[in-house]
Amino acid sequence: MPAVAKTAKLATLLALVCVTTIGAPAAYAGGRGEDGNRTDTGQNANLDDKGNLTVTAGGVVFDRSKNGSGTSTGALTSSTNWSPPPCWYAPKYTPEQLQKTLEPIWEAESTGYEWDAAQRKKYNADDKEKGFNKDKTGKGFWWDSYVDKSYPPGWDSCDKGPFWVDTGDAPPAEYENAVTPEILAELAYNEIRVPGTKVTLAPAEATKVNLPTWAWLNGADFKPVSVTASVPVLDLQATATAEPVSLKIEPGTADAVTYPASGVCEINNGHIGEPYAKGKAGETPACGVKYLRSSGDGTYPLRATVTWKITWTGTGGAGGDLPDGNFGATQDVVVQEIQAVNR
User: Fold this and answer.
1) Contact at 8 Å (CB) between 217 and 288?
2) Integer distance in angstroms from the first to the last C-alpha of the chain?
3) pLDDT tens across 207-217, in order?
4) How far apart are CA 299 and CA 297, in angstroms?
5) DSSP 8-state assignment for residue 175
6) What pLDDT shows up at residue 49?
7) Contact call for residues 42 and 142 (beta carbons, < 8 A)
8) Is 301 exposed, middle or buried (0-12, 13-18, 19+ CB in 10 A)?
9) CA neighbor of 58 nearest in space, from 95, 38, 15, 87
10) DSSP letter assigned to residue 212
């Protein structure tokens, strides 16, 4: 392809990624236009009467009403090298909306006459009745790419489109990451937020050398959370659910031992560790740490990481597992020498 054509193609692709629908009627995902047909999904945010946020972003509606909440919540990091899709394809335009998006780009002549002419031919733009598939209005959508706005690696890999898909048909196989229940589940994974992992310690203010220190998390905060991703115009949805399975304690120094020895505290009857109670001083904690050396004038950076098991269910009975996710935090621990009194 000549350099000029390559430049023109890149400019058009970038314009399609960045531009919002020009002159399109206001529409909410799953809503219906004046002709009674479901309309293009836009960028919208809605609060229900309970204050739960439902967001439409990138052609997908995310229901976060069952997500983790609070100021210390955070996103999961996959326990493997897997990552959610950095970009995807979903319905984006009705025939009229695509026309109102592309024609201003061509009229600007920034992409070159040859490229613009080829595009006009591709979309049959000169046919007022059938151009842009106007004769199929209400019977399908033009699909196009959407991008994760954090722009992770590979965000620009969805560089094909727009392409037409009739209602009820699957998108062509060559379009990787075209939305399916599984792709929606992976996108929902990316939206999950889980509670912070600052553990409660006993002793609380400062522990002592060779003294078992109990560690636990508030069980009420650590319950399953979920996010549902859907494309209402396709009647397609998937829910990704995160359930805590273990807590890993890393003391922040080699001069320590953990309980259990692996440092991994399994979830037991919904509890993460066991709260210390009076009379347990002589017992070994179910989850905790024993420091063998004082932290001196400083502290040890104890890190607590919770592993969450991720499962998903979706339209048509689809479902399965996604890679476990981790979320952790570091807190400072003061360790003092036990002071003995000589007589």
Assistant:
1) no
2) 92
3) 999 999 999 99
4) 7
5) S
6) 52
7) no
8) middle
9) 87
10) -
